[in-house]
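Hi support team,

I submitted a single chain yesterday and got back a structure, but I'm not sure I'm reading the token output correctly. Could someone confirm the output below corresponds to the sequence I sent? I've pasted both exactly as they appear in my results page.

Thanks,
R.
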Amino acid sequence: MLHLASKSPRRLELLRQLGLDPGLLDLDVPEQRQPGEPPEDYVSRVAREKAGAGLLKVMSSPQAVVLGADTEVVLGDTVYGKPTDAADAARMLAELSGRTHRVITCVWLVSAGREEHATSISDVRFAELTGPQIEAYVASGEAFGKAGAYGIQGRAAAFIAHLSGSHSSVMGLPLHETAVLLRKFQLLP
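Hi R., thanks for writing in. Yes, this is the structure output for that exact sequence:
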């Protein structure tokens, strides 16, 4: 049985698009980047830690497979996680305005005897955003709980001038890469 080690409704929605209905695991895994840790390594480590923590919760089920994922917005060497408040969200959006950033998503599948992972990197170019646009978006509440203070599946889609990569990865789960991993575990035909 597949379990999702995430509180993200978007990841659950994306897995359901693949025809799966995973068990949900509510975990609290710290997301703290280590000094000098490259962004890709950080995203992979956090995703692996989520999957591993989830597996510990379901070890009594020998057929359990746990999916852990992490998504971060990266500009240069700066990793933009979830904003802490409205001012933090507005700062992030202002810094991303008119620039191209990377969205890195790493997915880990783990079971009692196996681990597999995949990483998806997408380039996203934001249009120039005005102060009122940023204020209105932050006031909508959509900026919270999302890396980089935006969700591509909502109002922020209007900010995206160009996307090179995976739309579903920017949402939080690259469907192609995830399907390949799920097939390796014989969870998809």
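A quick pointer for reading it: The domain at 2-184 is CATH 3.90.950.10 (Maf protein). Let us know if anything else looks off.

Best,
Support desk
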